[in-house]
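hi support,

uploading two proteins for the ticket. first:
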Amino acid sequence: MTRKFPVKESDVLERAETLATGLEANPELFPHPPAPALKIRELVKQCQAGLDAATAAKAAYREAVEGKDERFAELEGWMKKDFRYGEDAVDYDPAKLERIGWHTRHAPKALVPPGQVRSLTIKAQGEGWLDLSWRDPADGGKVATFRIECREPGNETWDLVEIAMEHQARLSNQARGKKLEFCVLAANKAGEGEPSNTVMVVL
């Protein structure tokens, strides 16, 4: 048997039981131990009771924490509903909202169309294709998509070529040998902004 003293509490209890049994069975070898078998067994019983109490306390603590978290979650949920109700009831009036301990938020702004796309340029071109790039509008609502449109010079009607999400696009399979004008418009659910500057190309 190893001489290393056990570390785990369960191993300590097991070793203590072996010790008590050995002392009881071999009084001729160990006639006057500092702690006789009876004392060892009593201490084992007390330690086991302490372990049981600690286990029960841990379970009770976890249950208490879970209950506390549930109650806080319910309280916070109802408080938020009351604050939202208060915002609507007093039309976001900060002085009136202060009476219920809430700081005003800005009333949601209505979505407006984006402004005019800026700095449309042709970055590269080849037979039947070209690369366009542009910059966001300086004003207006948030951009959702960009509409790339094309026409032949002199036509009043623009045709949609592609919808882009980024600030650049490659347009392929374009008509060759013709003058073409391109522009880009920013759009969102509220509508479209003004067309960008026009660029002209012959592919």
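and the second one:
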Amino acid sequence: MDDRAATMFSFHKHKSILMGVVFGLWAFASLVMANSEKGWTAQLGSFHEEKNAERFVSRIKKKGYTPFVVKGENSQWYKVRVGPYPSKEEARQVVRDLKKNQGISAMVILSQEGPPDSEGPGDSIDVVVSQFLIWLKAWQGREVNAYLSFYSKNFKDPKKSRKEWEMQRRSALSRNSSITIQVSDIQMKQNDETIEMSFVQDFKSDRVSDIGMKELIWKNEGNRWKIIKEIWKPT
């Protein structure tokens, strides 16, 4: 998979980026703000294979940036970052420049992590983003059981019982076809036991078209992160 695939952010059913995530061939393209002891860094991507991370580093160096690779002792991810920068705003400006000049604008994730050699929180975010992409693919593909499997048994809808909510989702997926979903302005915050993810969602099908803000709360339930809460606010 080429480097451009690591910066795409168009979720259509058969795009290679999604298949790459499904089969674990590619991590995710993102920009993560990390607050380290030396300053703020911007994370450009995470890769399962070191050679892919190094290839991406070489590409970014040619653009005049100073990237480096981070991998913790127990981590599965090779993370490519640039920085550090003395202030959060300076790091944000680098993120904006990368979006404008290099096309690395697929997904923007804002998260205050620990120092660059502290991999726990960052790895959790990587895993949740991968889960998010597969959840999105299942939704677009109307793979009902796969889609529902991402929701915790403890998931609670503010207006319906768990059973009523699931029946409504099954009905909605069966009625709608030609589903496409685009998301933007993703922000993530890691808490002690959960990860909060908010984003702009643009949904289109043969029957419905709407756009608004969605918030997903993820919780690690043993061996898998699952959605325990979902909030939708149409705009």
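thanks. also noticed: Residues 93 and 181 are 28 Å apart (CA to CA).
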